[in-house]
Amino acid sequence: MPENAKPLVISAPEPRTLALIFTDDARRELHRKYEIVEIEPEALAGLAPDVLGRARYIIGQPPIDPATLDRMQSLRCVLNVETNLIDNMPYERMFERGIHVVTTGAVFAAPVAELGVALALNLARGIVDADLDFRNGRELWGGDGNTSARLLSGSDIGIIGFGDLGRALSRLLTGFRANIRVFDPWLPPSILRENAVEPVPLETVLSESDTVFVVASVTSENEGFLGAKAFASMRKGAAFILLSRAGIVDFEALMDAVRSGHIVAASDVFPEEPLAPDHPVRSLPGFLRSAHRAGALDVAFKEMGDMVLEDMDLMDRGLPPMRCKRAERETVSRMRSKPVSRN
Amino acid sequence: MPENAKPLVISAPEPRTLALIFTDDARRELHRKYEIVEIEPEALAGLAPDVLGRARYIIGQPPIDPATLDRMQSLRCVLNVETNLIDNMPYERMFERGIHVVTTGAVFAAPVAELGVALALNLARGIVDADLDFRNGRELWGGDGNTSARLLSGSDIGIIGFGDLGRALSRLLTGFRANIRVFDPWLPPSILRENAVEPVPLETVLSESDTVFVVASVTSENEGFLGAKAFASMRKGAAFILLSRAGIVDFEALMDAVRSGHIVAASDVFPEEPLAPDHPVRSLPGFLRSAHRAGALDVAFKEMGDMVLEDMDLMDRGLPPMRCKRAERETVSRMRSKPVSRN
Amino acid sequence: MPENAKPLVISAPEPRTLALIFTDDARRELHRKYEIVEIEPEALAGLAPDVLGRARYIIGQPPIDPATLDRMQSLRCVLNVETNLIDNMPYERMFERGIHVVTTGAVFAAPVAELGVALALNLARGIVDADLDFRNGRELWGGDGNTSARLLSGSDIGIIGFGDLGRALSRLLTGFRANIRVFDPWLPPSILRENAVEPVPLETVLSESDTVFVVASVTSENEGFLGAKAFASMRKGAAFILLSRAGIVDFEALMDAVRSGHIVAASDVFPEEPLAPDHPVRSLPGFLRSAHRAGALDVAFKEMGDMVLEDMDLMDRGLPPMRCKRAERETVSRMRSKPVSRN
Amino acid sequence: MPENAKPLVISAPEPRTLALIFTDDARRELHRKYEIVEIEPEALAGLAPDVLGRARYIIGQPPIDPATLDRMQSLRCVLNVETNLIDNMPYERMFERGIHVVTTGAVFAAPVAELGVALALNLARGIVDADLDFRNGRELWGGDGNTSARLLSGSDIGIIGFGDLGRALSRLLTGFRANIRVFDPWLPPSILRENAVEPVPLETVLSESDTVFVVASVTSENEGFLGAKAFASMRKGAAFILLSRAGIVDFEALMDAVRSGHIVAASDVFPEEPLAPDHPVRSLPGFLRSAHRAGALDVAFKEMGDMVLEDMDLMDRGLPPMRCKRAERETVSRMRSKPVSRN
């Protein structure tokens, strides 16, 4: 069997690398089953017609112009391992032709959800400041240190957004037997109920929760949609935990709400990253900070490679991809996340 | 019906108070159903013979001498709300007579378990130091800050002791789908299996876990039983989380193991409480400190009153207590916990 | 707002009726939100151009010829409430245009899964014959009647196919803590693992299970694929339970395997329905029969209407349908189920 | 080590046998660790003083007179493998001395609960009569055969009694996501809530359930306590499933309620066992019969031996038994179950 009898894969995973997203074993499997043409993202259009014509998959999100797409007659799927969809390829034409566009962002669901639970427990029990006090000999013992402590178990928890991350969060909380209410306008209520959470309006999530998790993606419609009024409607002392995109909230209003003592907050995302050295959130009491570290674990990146291999295997057999998340024709153009520049 | 037709309860809940352990509603219920005689613990022997003779329950753990016990012919149960059994009453004679001795320590299981999960997630994700770095403008963004980060989900978790607290911990971890192994010599293996954990020897818990939780009580047999050898047998980089009693570990050896970088640790309990201002654990990197705050939440204390009412109701109807934990004739004298002096 | 400002829905739900698949409340909602044009399936092509041009949804599976499709420029979705996809419309052209084809078959998952568990428990405990013996005064008491009885709890269970029905079955069995292994070549192994079942080859499902459930759809590739060899590879005394389509098995071979005493079996589906009065399966000992009753419960049909309303609501808002199951471009032409002629 | 250095066990397991309740491996373990003296139950008092004096455990429920008990100064536990406590030993004197009386009835919980679910599903789907109709060529296909069919999933389920069996039943039903309500006056409400069931009065269980399971033991107080009034209060068409003891119900009234068409029923227990050949329940439509076969599975009996070994191991180490169920001083004399005469 000649080498080129293997299906051809164009690899342009920037800012990831194959070494980041595949374990050694998985990368060996990739090379065993496929002919891999590694390119810089900008180099796609310049590839030889034969290579373009034979390419079955693209790993990555290189710019694709319509003319180049026309030459890629074997293309079945773009496997976007950056995970934020940007507007650099003719999606509508691809959907017409039945070319899948899939993303591997689900790998971040578990690590982000774990950090979310960690931040929630930290706010509920004041762990950071208690450790600092202990270092400085000012710790309060027993109940004296617990005047504002509370439990997650049995509490009212609100989740905004119920994609992979919201589901992972809900699953992690299983053992806490909390009362979980969810706002997600993109999902029918019955799907939320099947996942053992209660569908409610946004107002209810905000005003009747002890902890609110924001795990929704930014779209063209919800940018900055949580502002001063939203925070004011929250329970006194409730916790607001931001895990998805800073663009969803009015960050100044969030800081004001924390500064006033009305709520406490934690965030893994910020309006600018990295953040200015003198940004006031750095010294804001009642605000717990994480520098966009929620998802970027090596084990998460490595899972991407496994997902890519599983879905290419299905498509090799004439089946649709099932493991990665498919971009939807209706919503692909509404997504507004900035692509990442670092892993 | 005369006032004294109500069953008589002697109340000596020190160091707790009735106000601490009963909600207002529960306390009203207590007074509605029972005649309450509130005393200082030392005053029991001096009570009028009629009061002693009529007393059906004692709430608290006052010293009881054999002669006084003989005069308490209606006594059915001592409801110990301090929760550590001390050797100040003739237990054997009480067991002979069928007088129950029960404790309300189960109320601490949920809050301590939540703190345990919080400490484990903190160690796994370096949350305290990351927030401090952020305050000081030294934060590392994304994957750069995650070089030692890991997940609890799917990890190997070891638990030493599987009483109420171990079970609560195991339940909280349900959604993390971890591989939980337990050492508890006081329980038959089949009970552990029924609780969906794997019974293993102590050595396995120590050497094959990413996170080890110690939730066993101190007994006359296990004082200081986890020392340098135990810590050396742990996986490099594993987390050791101490939630029950400092007496179980050789604390110096634990600090050494952390200092050497072999393991990381967190503890809610310390050899002396409060701890000396210059104790080296205060500044030990890799060690997360909590000042015996794990269980002492108001909601936990208030649950004690509910438990007391539920079990007295069962005993009023000639049934055995089911809600509080009964002291066991075989083990009551082995328990070594120091009584608490604060709530 | 004029009446025709409502989105237009063409209703041709045969063999269902709107009264069957909508509750009274849901049907009122349907008429409140949509203009409904009810037609016989064959009448679609003859509808006025204005009606075709305005139609946003079709409820049902009427034949659609390419020319008619071209005139339906507002069409967003065909909601197939019969649930078996037949080859009577230009699917490929519909997919090009982004018209969804969805089915409501998920409503049958829960009732079929319950019947599956019922049949499995019946075979494990011999309930039918025990009741018959009791009627006839020949019952065996206690252990005497249990010589071939066994438990589902903790047993080895194999499932062939892991769509909605396989998942429902697996979920119902949660409390039985069985060892569930699944063969489904259309799904990547990691999705099976995420659902807490073990992915295995078909041979393992057959040869290492105490109970085998067949819940796969018939495709052009698997017709009659379970035959004498498959049954011979099963454990002696194991149970074979057929819930999806008779076409998947060689029915004669299945009866032979039961007749020989090697396995026991239950089936809800048969090679011809209704079945000939003299078909030998009617009197075959060790075979439990159900006359295609597994899914056809009124509550299941009524759920279809709710699904239709939820997905039309999403699509009205420019979102993709999430509740019904979408036909896949890759597999729509492989499905071989005969349409039903009765409800 | 001389033979008699092994702890001595008196074995009188009638009507069980050691071969019934121990696997071969477990029996070898029993003989390896213990000196076994096998006797007829009536022979206990006649044993040599040395044997009585050294006996640490009794496996079985032989009559013990006070004088014999006085001679058994090493006795720690009677392990009753018949599982019904009868009044043939001085329980009060045994409790005074701290001698445990434990039963192994928990082994029946899983098999009885599985039969309970099986009977409930049979009544909900009419499986027995549908199979009989099929045999006779009278089967109704599809929805025609489902006019009275209903689902357990999401239905209202009531359980009377929440011991080992009630808990097993509740656990098996986990995946059905039913609304489970429990009446058990011997347990505090909070324990029911912790088990994720709702504590309610008996009246609520009866009148607001689609299926009622009776799994309570007979006591001196509840004999015949479910009669015509109870059945009349049930929902029209609801199912009544009797799994524990016939003594709890007025059996004639139950048959009347079924005969009238108000409810359907299933029972594993009967007023006399075996039952008269002409008993009317044999031919009563709407009544599903099982001849006390629910628990008597070989795997259940074999588990008894494991329990006995585990608890003797704990007691050998000075710990209390944890695996078997301890008889309670308060309730031992209230139990009314007839001992079994067969396995």
CATH superfamily of the largest domain in chain A: NAD(P)-binding Rossmann-like Domain
Q: Would you tell me which CATH topology of the largest domain in chain A applies? A: Rossmann fold
Strand order, largest beta sheet of chain A: 8-7-6-9-10-11-12
CATH architectural label of the largest domain in chain A: 3-Layer(aba) Sandwich
Largest interface: A-B, 59 and 59 residues
Structural class of chain A: alpha/beta
Please give the domain count of chain A.
Answer: 2
Oligomer: homotetramer
Order of helices and strands of chain A: EHHEHEHEHEHHEHEHEHEHEHEEHE
Helical fraction of chain A equals 25-40%
Q: Describe the global form of chain A.
A: elongated
- The beta-strand count of chain A equals 13
Terminal residue distance of chain A = 38 Å
Count of DSSP-assigned helices of chain A = 13
Quote the average pLDDT of chain A.
Answer: 95
Strand content of chain A: 15-25%
What Rg of chain A do the Cα atoms give?
23 Å
- Can you tell me the CATH class of the largest domain in chain A? Alpha Beta
Largest sheet of chain A: 7 strands, parallel
Weakly predicted, low-confidence segments of chain A: none
